């Protein structure tokens, strides 16, 4: 009820038969009053990190100062513009991020423009590929999402 999302879809996500988009996952975490950054960091460590083990992911995490995101016409997801800030802050190209995350370059472009929202596991892989602090990134995403929903 708090999410205004059909119960059956929530059940499919919880039983693992469906993967939510990153912003729905963020809303689900916030709905149960969990710490978004800690949740996504733990999810990364327990699933994506193992799946990408041996890939060329940065081993140290970089702290980034994010700029506020304003409302943008036609934007489907704020995840992408925030991801672009993270990628640019560490001086990484879209091509390098896509390759490191195992993600299609065209899709990375659409994600960063806010035209496409990745599933939660792809989002984690993309953020991890940049080398930014995962907890910090998802806390910032939560704050930006909350700020935009109040506008």
What does this structure look like?
With 151 residues, this protein is mainly alpha-helical. It has a single domain, classed as lambda repressor-like DNA-binding domains (434 Repressor (Amino-terminal Domain), Orthogonal Bundle). The chain is built from eight helices and no strands. Helix 2 crosses helix 8 and helix 5 packs across helix 7. The longest helix has 17 residues. The chain starts with 6 loop residues before the first helix and ends with a helix. This is HTH cro/C1-type domain-containing protein. It comes from bioreactor metagenome.
Hey, roughly how much beta strand do the residues contain? under 5%
As for the CATH topology, it is 434 Repressor (Amino-terminal Domain)
List the uncertain runs: none
User: Tally of extended strands?
Assistant: 0
> What gap, in angstroms, lies between the N and C termini?
22 Å
CATH architecture: Orthogonal Bundle
Instruction: Give the name of the CATH superfamily.
Output: lambda repressor-like DNA-binding domains
What value does the Rg take, in angstroms?
A: 15 Å
Mean pLDDT across residues: 83
User: Helical stretch count?
Assistant: 8
Structural class: mainly alpha
Give the proportion of residues in helices: 55-70%
The profile of the biggest β sheet is:
none
Pfam families: HTH_3 (PF01381)
InterPro entries: Cro/C1-type_HTH, Lambda_DNA-bd_dom_sf
Protein name: HTH cro/C1-type domain-containing protein
Domain HTH cro/C1-type: 83-137
């Amino acid at each position: 009820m708090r999410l205004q999302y059909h119960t059956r879809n929530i059940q499919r996500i919880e039983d693992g038969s469906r993967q939510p988009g990153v912003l729905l996952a963020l809303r689900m975490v916030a709905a149960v009053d969990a710490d978004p950054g800690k949740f996504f960091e733990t999810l990364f460590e327990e699933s994506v990190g193992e799946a990408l083990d041996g890939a060329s992911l940065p081993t140290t995490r970089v702290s980034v100062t994010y700029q506020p995101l304003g409302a943008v016409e036609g934007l489907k997801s704020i995840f992408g513009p925030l991801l672009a800030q993270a990628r640019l802050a560490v001086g990484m190209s879209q091509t390098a991020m896509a390759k490191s995350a195992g993600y299609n370059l065209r899709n990375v472009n659409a994600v960063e423009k806010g035209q496409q929202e990745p599933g939660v596991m792809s989002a984690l892989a993309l953020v991890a590929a940049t080398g930014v602090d995962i907890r910090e990134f998802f806390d910032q995403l939560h704050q930006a999402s909350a700020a935009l929903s109040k506008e």
